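Notebook B, p. 112. Complex prediction, attempt 2.
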Amino acid sequence: MRVRNRSNAKERLENNEYVFIEPTINKGNWHNIFNNINPIHLEIGTGKGKFIFNLAKKYPNINFIGLETQPTVLSFLLDKIELESIENLRLILADANNLTDYFDNGEISKIYLNFSDPWPKTKHIKRRLTFKTFLDQYVQVLNDEKRIAQKTDNQNLFEYSLASMTQHGFVIDKISLDLTNSQYEQDNVHTEYEDKFITKGNNIYYVEVIRK
Ligand SMILES: C[S@@+](CC[C@H](N)C(=O)[O-])C[C@H]1O[C@@H](n2cnc3c(N)ncnc32)[C@H](O)[C@@H]1O
């Protein structure tokens, strides 16, 4: 989805108290930022943020962080927050490559990977968010249950991720090859890409894995 560049996006993000552009400063301190001890859930590759915004409204007793590299797309989530501030939601403008610099061991309770870029070429495999170097970092920052939820319409990425995560010691807790028509749809909060792909008639694949 091509998004026209917003020239003031970075500046707006830098000047908003809900946004963190130097997250390393807050490593180990995120519960203080939320001012409570509720679990913290992290979405990697938040995009325009429909999913995390609605999830945060639905579950006020969970803290949510949206992590995204692109200022323009993240600024669309800022638009929503400026109209309706939500105390249990914060944004980080940064790259998931350095996740363990942003979060302490066990600081996060759940990670969401929604419609992550598939990086179909083998030479780009290391960029997939379920590549082993990312999984190593997820294992570190996640707490006891180590839960990751993934949704995608890309069958190749889904199959790759299932193999990569299970090889990494994760076991499947929930799975659907057609989320939209499954028992899980009732609680499913949609993302921008999900709506777009459903309109196109694509299947949505869904898995939640845990590592004890
Ligand atoms: C295909 S979009 C999906 C957006 C949204 N999750 C949705 O479902 O509508 C993937 C997003 O992940 C972001 N992204 C890709 N790699 C990332 C990384 N290493 N760290 C943080 N965000 C990343 C991209 O900038 C892009 O906005």
